[in-house]
Amino acid sequence: MDKRNLNIAVIGAGVIGSSVAKELQKELRNSNITVIADAFHEDTASCVAAGIFRPGPSFKGPTREITKQWIDYSWNYWSKIMNSSDAAQAGIMPLPVYIFSKTNYHVTRNHLIEDLVPVYRECDVDELKMCGKGWKYGSYYLTLKIECDKYLPWNEVLFKQNGGKILKQKVESFSSLKDYNLVFNCTGMGSKYLCNDHDLVPIRGQVIKVNAPWLKTSFYGDYDTYVIPGMDGNATLGGCRQYDSYNMEVDKYDSASIWERCCDLVPSLKKAKVIGHKVGLRPHRVPVRVEREVMHGLSVVHCYGHGGYGVMVAPGTAKTAVQIAVDALKRNSQSKL
Ligand SMILES: Cc1cc2nc3c(=O)[nH]c(=O)nc-3n(C[C@H](O)[C@H](O)[C@H](O)COP(=O)(O)OP(=O)(O)OC[C@H]3O[C@@H](n4cnc5c(N)ncnc54)[C@H](O)[C@@H]3O)c2cc1C
């Protein structure tokens, strides 16, 4: 296997492209890696996310085992940074969470992480009264949070220090990438057009960013209501999940609903200063697509369709995507795959 002088393109600079580029620099050290994207940092869906490590039960890889491997690997990856001196710069912080429901016990459980996080337990009677009346079920757990507005620039600096290149450009077709030996497709919702993938559906989300430095704990209620504190005293209030909606405009009715539901859950938020409103499209696909395909004679490894869980699980899927390429390289002695 000759790994030298490989020209590799990673299309997409959200959390998935960024994670794949980092993993590539580890596994294929002598190759030339270029990240190509038409949007960076705060203009990506990744920067709309609060970035909580909490998979929904609907999150699915190709098998249950692989799904769990992705989640477990990612937890260890993020924990390692969180426990290092880089944590603040990389935007990783620990997060205690209460999740309540008035109607359904299962909403408060999470079979994908209960055995992974250091604490996951049912709430006692007093805790069920913390956020007003009527909460019948509740769990408390300790997780972590990744803030992409810090993580993406931090990762980009390391990528460039290790010789990586960055190109701002829209890719119209994989056929325009003939100069590369290997391409990673990490375009999130962009794959709808690049791959004509009918299984990829947007789930629209809207959030309110506020300044509320007194908040140290995250609270979830019914109907996608969540309050997630972050670094710098800021917090994310959500939310909504609108299937098959491409609307990127801030909707004033969604804002009003989010504000009312979050203030009902955590009344001290009425004193919080609103910083802004954000909209993003979750690239939803079942299963998440991590596989190799030869397109226009070019070896393309896809890594997209992470829905509402791409930030937390990015390191795990990036590792698999790069491993798929390394295995293909091993099968083929020529540097052109
Ligand atoms: C409101 C909301 C809340 C969320 N909360 C969480 C959470 O708490 N935890 C969590 O884990 N996840 C959360 N998510 C989901 C998470 O944001 C996504 O799963 C993740 O950002 C997907 O990352 P990505 O890199 O695939 O996509 P993106 O961040 O959208 O990046 C795609 C990249 O591809 C580029 N691109 C696309 N098409 C082309 C093209 N043709 N040519 C060149 N470049 C192209 C774009 O410019 C961009 O750089 C949330 C999402 C939303 C909307």
From TrEMBL:
Q: A single GO molecular function, which one?
A: FAD binding
Keywords per UniProt: FAD, Flavoprotein, Oxidoreductase
Q: Does the keyword NAD apply?
A: no
GO terms classed as biological process: D-amino acid catabolic process
Q: Which InterPro entries match?
A: DAO, FAD-dep_OxRdtase
Ranges where the FAD dependent oxidoreductase domain occurs: 8-323
Cofactor(s) essential for the protein: FAD
Entry binding sites for D-dopa: Y226, R282, G308
Q: Which residues bind FAD?
A: V171, T187
Matching SUPFAM superfamilies, A to Z? FAD-linked reductases, C-terminal domain, Nucleotide-binding domain
Give Gene Ontology CC terms.
cytoplasm
Q: Could you confirm whether the keyword Oxidoreductase appears in this record?
A: yes
Task: Describe the family membership recorded for this protein in Swiss-Prot or TrEMBL.
Answer: Belongs to the DAMOX/DASOX family.
Q: List the PANTHER family.
A: D-AMINO ACID OXIDASE, RE49860P
Task: Kindly provide the name given to this protein in its UniProt entry.
Answer: FAD dependent oxidoreductase domain-containing protein
Q: Which organism is it from?
A: Bombyx mori
